Amino acid sequence: MAFNHLPAAMHDALGPLSVTPVTHSVPMAKNHRPSRPPENAGSRPSPTVVLDRLAAAAGRAARITHTEHLPPRAGTHATWPDRIRPEVISAIGQAGIDHPWTHQATAAEHALDGESVVIATGTASGKSLAYLAPVLSTLLDGAHAPNGRGTTALYLAPTKALAADQRRAVKQLAAPLGSAIRPAVYDGDTPVEEREWVRQYANYVLTNPDMLHRGILPSHPRWASFLRSLRFVVVDECHTYRGVFGSHVAQVLRRLRRLCARYGSEPVFLLASATAAQPSAAAGRLTGLPVVEVADDASPRGELVFALWEPPLTDLHGEKGAPVRRTATAETADLLTDLTLQGVRSVAFVRSRRGAELISVIAKERLAEVDRSLPGRVAAYRGGYLPEERRALERALHSGELLGLAATTALELGIDVSGLDAVVIAGYPGTRASLWQQAGRAGRSGEGALAVLVARDDPLDTFLVHHPEALFQQPVESTVLDPDNPYVLAPHLCAAAAELPLTEADIALFGPAVPELLPQLEAAKLLRRRTTGWHWTRRERAADLTDIRGGGGRPVQIVEEGTGRLLGTVDEAAAHTAVHEGAVHLHQGRTYLVRKLDLEDSVALVEEAVPPYSTNARDTTAIAVLETDTEIPWGDGRLCFGSVEVTNQVVSFLRRRLITGEVLGETKLDLPPRTLRTRAVWWTVTEDQLDAARISPEILGGALHAAEHASIGMLPLFATCDRWDIGGVSVPLHPDTLLPTVFVYDGHPGGAGFAERAFHTARSWLTATRQAIASCECEAGCPSCIQSPKCGNGNDPLHKRGAVRLLTELLRTAPPEPEEGHPAERSGGPRPEGAEG
């Protein structure tokens, strides 16, 4: 998230802001040849049978470190509230649903009572029907209103795909109700000629927070009739609105509520999430309203078999001669291949766009060895595709034309892909909430399902597959956010002022940080105070000040040089690492080389090629302490939390051989540095502590560096993030602390709560870090303990034993964990990159 295109005055007022995401490829090993499916592949085997078949190949059984069996569960029925119109109940009956589950009826009752409600029940528990029943009934009530357009409702989804899928479901459910229900999608893919019809006639508008922020709210006079009649706002998959992204969405919803009040409406908010802890509190922070919680899941559930899978060690050696495991990418590709051959409908979730493309390519190659007709049954699905490509893939998956799909989290949410038998998760997705969301995509028709988590060669993944209790005996994380983050709040105050002048009465709506920010925005000449309130002063659109997804700036267009064909886009913040000159770019199974990156025009020119290598960027990072908010003694050292400025620069990229991961060479890059003002936790050690830990000056840098890498790898177990949301720097003598220091910082301007959570759980966090390093079987350090896939220094220096001794001494004098303030823990949005030094 960055104000990369803010007016200079905003930069001066809030400080320089930018962030540098990094994506990396991984080496692969081809050691498994698929065979033809068994005779009964066309039947629907139990998840246990499917897993046994996967484990039957030579050496595979030993890769399963744990299997968890979640038994089936019976459902409990209720009756719909008598205020639901009989026509709606009849339409629901025609869809094959005679009676609601208890939680559906309870949620509908609250909605009809005018109470905002969050439905926090499991995947495939019928949350959509819980809010659709009262919404459709109320829309039907208003369909014949004597004045105006009647009642309206707004549906918000985090992705375009989910909104389009929900429109299909609503249209099908409401078909018996005739023209009284007029659902329509309004997003960036909606043709211009359709948009006016949606504004004037649709009474159930499905969109996303981005379009609400950039398109609907700034043009509210054109939406006056719709907003005046707005009765319900549905916020689907609300657990995704967390951290910086969630904080932006919280302010967008406050702007929506403000405009609705201006037009005389006060909509009820209906929120839904399959994976949320403390859902009422989280929904209240998101909407700014009291929210009733419905969390007792009364729906039936099929059996779920959940396997933890650790790829084997290979004969290869990585940086500094470290042993290398077979990659999760290659292992997942083989599993997806075998599931496809069994006729098992499956999705493989992958953390990166490149990973999704690679798994698809590998699976197609393996399938072609068996049957030339099979590669067409597997595809990749990720963000950055053109709209028509996404829609075609969604239709093919829904119809069963596709048997296997390698997808990023773009497909994680509640798109109806009923009929899936198995899910393979390539690497821990960062949070237990996301893990269960992905696992829940299989078995949605009530049948048994298989989920397999394939561990990456990474400290956290290695820890989890050998400590299953950390996954299966712990609740999902709290979905928390901080709308008062000034980097979030400031642009929304400007956007709100552009929509309607801000008044004193609005301060309570937007939060306690407003009085401090308004003078800064006045001084920056972004807002001007007059007798009627604060006004937006510029010609530019205030809504363009920020990208609520956290990308910042214009997306970089990826264009084929010879033809001018647009292949897709990449976030501006990711451009330095994803599409630098010489980078390998994958799209729909084809490989391209980036010939030129034009940052000024936001264009990357590529040409098709077949290089025998992949690329990943290297960067350098420096950090300065701006302000220490709080600190506590750790023996003679200190544990601190505060504000820092991080300077990051991509300086080169490595070329790695595709199969082995062998480094073929390094190429220098000339890209500008980026600065990031954010929040960090850091700890220092003294000479006496170093002497007690037997850390000599020669190994100090390596011990600190190893502890930094491992602590970043383990933090996602304690904060709702993953290692790509955070960064770190370790320094034997830092100029601001004058001591050896390790920093871990949020990769978001203004902070996202990860570092604060680390501060409050430091003892548990660093204890787990020490355990992860000490228990690793390697001799001198490997990717499973102290090596990082995104280290800007090539994982040099690192000293495994020194890190264990250092953390042992630090923890020996560690005080009890400090109490958490508000917001105690926050969770992350998209994945801006913090480099590891």
Automatic annotation (TrEMBL):
Q: Name one GO molecular function term.
A: helicase activity
Stretches for region Disordered: 21-47, 812-837
Protein's UniProt keywords contain Nucleotide-binding = yes
Q: Where is the Helicase C-terminal domain?
A: 331-487
Helicase ATP-binding domain location: 108-294
| CDD domains recorded | DEXHc_Hrq1-like, SF2_C_Hrq
| Alphabetical keyword list | ATP-binding, Helicase, Hydrolase, Nucleotide-binding
Stored InterPro entries: DEAD/DEAH_box_helicase_dom, Helicase_ATP-bd, Helicase_C-like, Helicase_put_actinobac, HRQ1_WHD, MZB, P-loop_NTPase
Q: Which domain of life is it from?
A: Bacteria
Q: Which NCBIfam families match?
A: DECH_helic (TIGR03817)
Name of the molecule in the record: DEAD/DEAH box helicase
